[in-house]
Structure formats: structure tokens, C-alpha cells
Amino acid sequence: MSDPSIPERRSGLTRIGALLLIFVCITLAILLAFTRTQLHELRQDLSKRLSDTDQLSHQVQQTAQQANETSRETSTRLALLESRFAQSQNQQIELEALYQDLMRNHDDWILAEVEQLVIIANQQLELTGNVQSALAALEAADMRLQRIDKPLFSQLRETLKQDMDHLRALPYVDTNGIALRLDALSRQVDNLTLATDTRPRARATPASPAVGPWASLTQKVLKDLGDAIKIRRMDNPELPLLTPEQSFFLRENLKLRLLSARNDALTHQELRYQDDLKTASDWLTRYFDTQTPAFNLVKNGLDQLLTTPVTIPIPDVSATLSAVHAARGMHP
User: Fold this and answer.
1) What are the b/e assignments for 163-201, b being 16+ CB within 10 Å?
2) φ, ψ dihedrals at 290, nearest 5°
3) What percent of the chain has pLDDT over 90?
């Protein structure tokens, strides 16, 4: 007889084998899924790295291009600097040669400076009458001659000293102070009162004592006759009333006269200066009220300026200029 437990054992082994097979299949499926996931992640990581590599390569190319451009600019600037350095070297050589030439002709150079300073002083005296500027130029020329300190130029320095003494002895004309005073008077023009703006005050009629009817009639007739007949001087007519526009232009013209006198004082034009001040004074007396403080202020200022000269006799420095020419071996 066969053992009945044998089929049962076989059936159990079959089930165990099936379970093992199923477990192996499941394990293989899990491993396959995990492997696929790892491969997918690896592909994504590889794609990302390739993209980063492309971007880095593009940046490297741009950096290389910028470096090339910078290198070209640097080369251009270097060439420009080299060119300028060469020019500066040439200029330095020329300056050294000029300096050596000037050192060899030191006396002639100083005499040329003295000549130019004396010419400037002469021009200041002849063109503008500016004594102070001319004196400053002659003093500068004397300082230049002190550097040479040679007996050969003693006569020149003596002539120069005489001209400087003549200029120092001249009276000082304060043209700047005159200009400031005229500016102050011009600012006072707007404070002046026009003569046409003033009105005479009505005289109070005294109360007449009680008189008879015939005396009252006689006084009335005489008063009417006095109002009907008036005597006026025709050689001094009254000024007509001015419109606001005319008053404005009158004041502006007076200011322009004072400004013209200011310019005449600065340029030492004595005749024009006196003419402008006299015209301004005449306008002031004719068109403005003479009883106001502003009128007295402006009128007194104009009277004082009329007595203030703006020019003085100007000496001639041609003797010094001739002495300089003689020192340089030139004929005057």
C-alpha cells in the first residue's frame, strides 16, 4: 500500500514552490521598477547636467569674447599711451632746449619782460588813465631788473624810478567811489516826487466883518474880476501833467544819465561826465519837487560830484621805454 501522506507532501511542496516563484516574481518586479526609476532619475540628472554644461560653455564663450574685446581695448589704449608718451618726451626735449636757450639769453629775456611791462604801463596811461595799474607794471619791471643787478642797467633803473615817483605824486582819483555814489543816487530816483504831483493848498478865506449890502456887492464884483483876469509869466510856463507812462520814462532817462556819468567816470571822460551830470541836475530841478528830502539828497550829491574831477594830467613814460630800447641795443 502506498503512503497517503506523500501526495499531501507534494501538494505542500508545490504550494511552497509557487509561493517562492510568486515572491521571486514580485521581487524581480520591484527591482525592475526601482531600476527604471533610477534610470529615469539618472537620465533627468544627466539632462540637467548637460544643460548646465551648455550654459556654462555659453558663459565661457561670452567671457572669452569680453576678454578679447578688453584685450583689444587695452592694446589700443596702450598704443595711445605710448604715442602720448612719445609726444611728451618730444615736448620735454623741446622744453629743455628752450630752457637752455633762455638760460643762455637770461638778460635779454628779462629786458624783454621789462619792455612789455613798460609798454603795458604806457597803454594803461594813454588808453584808460589808470595810474595805479601803470604804477604796478613799472614796479614789476623794476623787480625784474633787480634780478640782473648789473651796472650796465643802472641808468635804466634810475629813469624807471623817476617815472614811478611822478606817478606816486599824482592825486588819487577814486573812480570806483564815484561810481558807487552814482549808483546810490540812481537808486534814490524812484523816491523823488514829481513837481506836477504837488498841489497848492487852498487858502482859507478869512471871515469878513459884517458890512452893508453895497459893500458886500462891491467885494463880490472885485472877487469875480480877480478870478476872471489872471497874470502869468510866459517865459516860465507851468509843466503839463504827466501820464504814469511818461513819469516812468522820465525816471528811467534820469537813471540812464546817471549810468552814463558812471561809465564816463570809469573811463575818465571828463567832458562827457560833466555834461551828463549837468543834464541830470537840470532835469532834477525842472521836473521834480524841490521841497522834498529826496530831492535835497540827490541834488547835493550831484553838486558834489560836479566838483569832483575824474581825470588828471597823465605823465609820459616814453623816456623809460626809450631807455629799455637802448639797453636792448635798439633805437627808440
Assistant:
1) bbebbeeeeebebeebbebbeebbeebeebebbbeeeee
2) -85, 0
3) 11
Q: Which of 130, 117, 115 is nearest to 314 (CA)?
A: 130
Q: In whole angstroms, what is the distance from residue 177 CA to residue 309 CA?
A: 12
Among residues 143, 116, 140, 133, which one has the least CA distance to residue 167? 133
The domain tally of the chain equals 3
Residues pairing with 194 in the sheet: 288
The amino acid at 16: I
On whether both 181 and 307 belong to a single domain, the answer is: yes
207 occurs within a structural domain: no
Please give the pLDDT value at position 332: 40
Which phi and psi (to 5°) does residue 194 adopt? -65, 145
- 307: in domain: yes
Domain span holding position 87: 63-104
Does residue 296 contact residue 281 with C-beta atoms inside 8 Å? no
d(CA 106, CA 242) in angstroms, rounded, equals 72
What is the C-alpha separation between 140 and 3, in angstroms, rounded? 150
Low-confidence ranges of the chain (pLDDT < 70): 1-9, 99-105, 197-215, 217, 221-242, 329-332
Q: What pLDDT is recorded for position 3? A: 57
Give the global pTM: 0.45
For the chain, percent of residues with pLDDT exceeding 70:
80
